[in-house]
Design brief:
The chain is mainly alpha-helical and about 100 residues long. It contains four helices and three strands, in the order H-H-E-H-E-E-H.
């Protein structure tokens, strides 16, 4: 276990949200749609999607926490996901309280 990589992965809300979603349900959609359901994205939503596509997903994939199929926008748990699982379970249980 590399605690520095684990904490780096969890440091950003978008990465943490995705990893927690994978803990609950595998696979996940990359989520390149408006969270409000509108066909036109706000500037903030566009910025978040660009960050997710160019920063967060590649970082999580490089660390092995996810596997990302860019053609289908599908994300599944990667070979190193179980290393970060205890931290995710701790966060999930804390959020439930």
């Amino acid at each position: 276990m590399n605690a520095d990589l684990d904490f780096e992965a969890l440091a950003h809300e978008q990465r943490r949200t995705l990893l927690l979603a994978l803990l609950e349900s595998n696979p996940q959609d990359a989520g390149f749609e408006s969270p409000t359901g509108h066909s036109v994205l706000t500037d903030a939503e566009q910025r978040e999607q660009i960050e997710m596509f160019h920063i967060h997903l590649p970082k999580l994939e490089d660390h092995g926490y996810i596997e990302w199929n860019e053609e289908t926008d599908q994300i599944v748990k990667g070979p190193q996901f179980d290393e970060i699982r205890p931290l995710l379970e701790c966060i999930a249980s804390d959020d439930a309280e």
